[in-house]
Amino acid sequence: EPEVTQTPSHQVTQMGQEVILRCVPISNHLYFYWYRQILGQKVEFLVSFYNNEISEKSEIFDDQFSVERPDGSNFTLKIRSTKLEDSAMYFCASSPVGGTGYNEQFFGPGTRLTVL
Amino acid sequence: RKEVEQDPGPFNVPEGATVAFNCTYSNSASQSFFWYRQDCRKEPKLLMSVYSSGNEDGRFTAQLNRASQYISLLIRDSKLSDSATYLCVVKYQGGKLIFGQGTELSVKP
Known about the structure:
- The complex is a heterodimer.
- By secondary structure, chain A is mainly β.
- Chain A is 0% helix and 49% strand.
- Chain A contains no helices and eleven strands.
- In chain A, the strands form two sheets. In chain A, strands 2, 4, 5, 6, 9, 10 and 11 form a seven-stranded mixed beta sheet that branches. A four-stranded antiparallel beta sheet of chain A has the order 1-3-8-7, with no helix packed on it.
- Chain A is globular, with a radius of gyration of 13 Å.
- Chain B is built from no helices and eleven strands.
- In chain B, a hairpin with a 4-residue loop joins strand 7 and strand 8.
- Chain B is globular.
- The chains are: A mainly beta, B mainly beta.
- At the A-B interface, strand 4, strand 5 and strand 9 of A face strand 4, strand 5 and strand 10 of B.
């Protein structure tokens, strides 16, 4: 069964450093998302991406964040200058269809980011 | 008011029990509704979609009341393997998912 993959599974970085979190969505999917979950808190939407551009972003997704689909398979989230409060689990998700219907978003296993 | 609000939990129940989770959402323009399951430190996984007519999948029954902006999940004959956090999820226009805080379920032998 196809699945979303993410690397690395755990990333430890120093405050102020740049990190890139990588995702490989399911191959025929067209809509891509990043969510994050701070330990003990709810899953929060960060950004959606379709047709090589951001469709929507949340207030969390400020100028320190960027997303890219550098080739036909990878989808990346970059944090330019990490802060302590960026420590969280970051989940990538993809779906074949976007919009408001009952189409499932498939989640990757997540990357745990720890900022020291 | 929180966009998606759930029972705080945790729910501790014996095997075989019936347990019900409730959820309310604030945005009347919400389009689609789901229950996801999340095991400790793992990704959310879709449990079931929730339709206005109500729907059932084995031991699981979901209900939606759009007028009251209320969603429920009923689990019958609880199994040890049902122990997890259950997430009430609402999809907005544009496709983003809004998650509730989650309700932790622990099924004991």
